[in-house]
Amino acid sequence: MSRRRPGCIADSSMALSFAVGILIAMLQILGYGFRLSPDSSLPTNSKYLNHFSVDLHHKLINLTREIQFVQQQIKDNPNPTLSTSEIIKKKKNNKTDIAHGTPELTDTRRHFLEIESLESVKIRENEPKVLILTTSKRSTTRMQAADMVDNFLSRHSIYQIHQPEPSSDKDPLIWTLELLPHPELEVYRALDRLQHDQASGNCAANGQSKYWCSGWHADLWYAARGSLNLALTNNRPLSLVFPDVCKESHKKFVKAWHYAADACEAKDLSCYFLNYTSCPRPEKFDKSKEMFDLKRTIPDKFESLFSNHHALKGKSTVKLWDVHNAAPGEFYNFLLYMYLTRMRYWVRQEVMKRVEEFKLKEPCAVMHVRQNDIALHDNWRRFYYPLSAYIGEAKDAIDAMGIKTIFLMTDSGDVIDETKKHPEFEWRWMEKHRFRRNEKINFENQFPSGSPKEESIALLTLFHLASECRLFIGGVSGFGTLAYRYMCLLHTKNVWDCPPHRVVDQHKAYTGMHDNPDPRHNKSSEHFGKKAVKYSGYTETDKEGVPYPEEVKGSPEHKQMQNHKKEEAKRQK
């Protein structure tokens, strides 16, 4: 037998790569084009067409697997005389073939898994970089397959969906998963082992934290930063538990997280998001097991991964209301929030559909204007400012970046009306019911539509739309800072790449607890309409001339205001 010429292995590999490409293209045509536009010469019975294309689809998948396996073996095989048929024979005799759904994965190449076998698969060592999940069973529906994939992803947060998912019953049931990059991988690997492996061994030993039942930011950001971070630090799994009544002002939310009260039977995070633990939710909160601490430190086991990361090291600290940490700390904390909010298949599909239908033009700016209930907060009343104050604050950045489109996020119908005064911009907002200033509402009444489920999907859509823009404009709000964090994570492919921001500082109207008549009709809430305010070039006529407490020299409010101005001047410097 003559010696194989140099380059033959590479040539065979290139030919096989080309063949794989052709087969994948054929698969896409058959899976996506054929089913949507069947040949008129074929029988028109949809059931027949579906089975016909499914059969071809699976034959192509199997053939593609064989070619990819041979291609990899040719690259790795030290014996150049081993024939292709011998390689395939060797594959078929290999009892640890991952294509048949073996539970333990032991190398880092691309692997195929049968969707129906996912329940028994647990990946904890030598994670493959790419997983392709598919099915050979005609009886498996898209929603059944999606549920099985979701359950797998719940226990394997180290993987993210890499390609578009099947979105209709005509699409082939294929999911492509990709291993997360560093340092997310290390954090999520630890969470998988803590919240699923360790937790399921003794659920009664888990620590507990209550659902906050406040706003979206407070509920989920503090659950992540205050409790999940402590779970990782102390190596003790976490379970979230309902309070007896979610909100005193909304006593109908009993034994429920108010954002999920009408979303599913569980009425908790699992309605929208993948399971953060393998343990069932405890029925009653046990104070002795409480885990909550708002320290913003990164656990020692992860600290160097983030502080020494080449893309995070030396990044300036963003000065935004609830953003206090340098880039490594903010990135780490937001990863914990994202772990709790990994969307289920039906939510992913709905949010993606709404984002695509919205067609937001770039370059754009996000403007978050919260009014209505901010004057009702007992110990954090904030002043209203009109739309022109936000525009004035950001004018330099808007002009410099050539922005003409502003994506407006607001809880107020009155703010929507104000956009008519500024026709120089193309204003975009999501159509939904919003309260107006003359309506009687409670603090943190988040459901003007009457449906917590609809409002929650709208919020998730808002966050993902915001991430498409390049400038953030807002006030003092946890929701606004959360939207900004989405922009830092998603608006470019770089690691924690935060865009420019401009913030109207809605400083406190009063401090401490006090009587709370509806202050939208008193001097604290109608601040911008009743006093002369100079704020970033914006001036409003004094309508009543009544001095505010902070204007009276020597008053506690005046001292507080002076201190605030000094701090702001120091920060700006």
TrEMBL record:
Transmembrane segments: 12-34
Keywords, comma-separated and alphabetical: Membrane, Transmembrane, Transmembrane helix
GO molecular function list: alpha-(1->6)-fucosyltransferase activity
Compositionally biased residues, Basic and acidic residues: 515-529, 540-573
Domain of life: Eukaryota
Region feature (Disordered): 510-573
Protein name (record): Uncharacterized protein
